[in-house]
Amino acid sequence: MRTPIIAGNWKLNKTVDEALGLAKALKEQLNDLKNVEIIVAPPFTALAPLAEALKDSPILLAGQNCYPAEGAYTGEISPTLLRDVGCRAVIIGHSERRHLFAETDEFINQKIKAALAAGLRVIFCIGETLTERNENRTFEVLESQTRNGLSGLDSASMNRLTVAYEPVWAIGTGQTASNEQAQEAHHFIRELLGNLFDSSVAENTRILYGGSVKPENIDGLICQADIDGALVGGASLKAGDFIRIARFKQS
Questions:
Q1: 212 marked as binding residue
Q2: Is the distance from CB of 241 to CB of 214 less than 8 angstroms?
Q3: Active site positions, annotated
Q4: CA-CA distances (angstroms) from residue 184 to 47, 165, 177, 226?
Q5: Is the pTM of this model over 0.85?
Q6: Residue 160 phi/psi, 5° resolution?
């Protein structure tokens, strides 16, 4: 059995005080949660305070991004510094990094390797745009992003990597992929991992769905055979919504 992951990407939201308030609510309400892994990724400014606030909690801290080197790179943050401040994971390849900041598959691959080398776990995001889906290129895009993003990794490295399928057309739009669309993409990704690595990697790698995940749709998504949790955006900013998502119901 793959342990589900519910991860909250807070993006560029929450002051330090607001982040501490949200973390306190999550810690109080989710400390007793069993067999589900909870991860939160606040803005960089809140990482150190949240590391302290969550130190006696099973909730793990993640960075939203990283740069694959250290030194004269003004405004960036390295995997080593994320680890030093208390992070145990980092999100890499999010569609907003790809499309707003023009990050390439090759650059994302460098970041994945640097994060793994620093001892961080990686949440590796892939997904197609609406145009690509309408052109029936979904699988082509997912295969290209996965092959290039994971180039040079071995099976052992995959033990610390989680894939997040995020259809770009569903992020922040309120439009969610249907349970069937999401399962189809997740199944394709799992089969692809088997081809790129081996059946053990395919079976054990957790694949999350991201894209307007809400309390109203999590139960249907999580029941799909190849969906192992969610990378939650807007709903992770509201304690009640995120708690309900984390306490999903499986039929």
A1: yes
A2: yes
A3: 94, 166
A4: 35, 11, 10, 9
A5: yes
A6: -115, 20
Q: What is the pLDDT of residues 17-38, one digit of tens each?
A: 999 999 999 999 999 999 999 9
Q: What string of DSSP letters covers 172-202?
A: SSS----HHHHHHHHHHHHHHHHHHS-HHHH
Residue with tokens 């793959």: 2
Tracing tokens 């939201």 back to the chain, one arrives at 13
- Architecture of the domain whose range is 5-246: Alpha-Beta Barrel (3.20)
Question: Alpha-carbon dihedral of residues 145, 119, 91, 162, nearest 10 degrees?
Answer: 60
Q: Is residue 174 a known part of a binding site? A: no
| Alpha-carbon distances, residue 25 vs 11, 212, 221, 248 (angstroms) | 19, 22, 25, 17
- Sequence-distant (6+) residues with CB within 8 A of 73 are 67
Is residue 172 part of an annotated ligand binding site?
yes
Report the C-alpha gap between 137 and 139 in whole angstroms. 6
What is the amino acid identity at position 208?
L
Number of Cβ within a 10 Å radius of residue 243: 18
- Tell whether 249 is in a known binding site: no
8: which strand partners? Answer: 40, 232
Of these ranges, 54-58, 81-85, 175-179, the one predicted with the greatest mean pLDDT is 81-85
Residue of 8, 123, 108 whose CA lies nearest to 68: 108
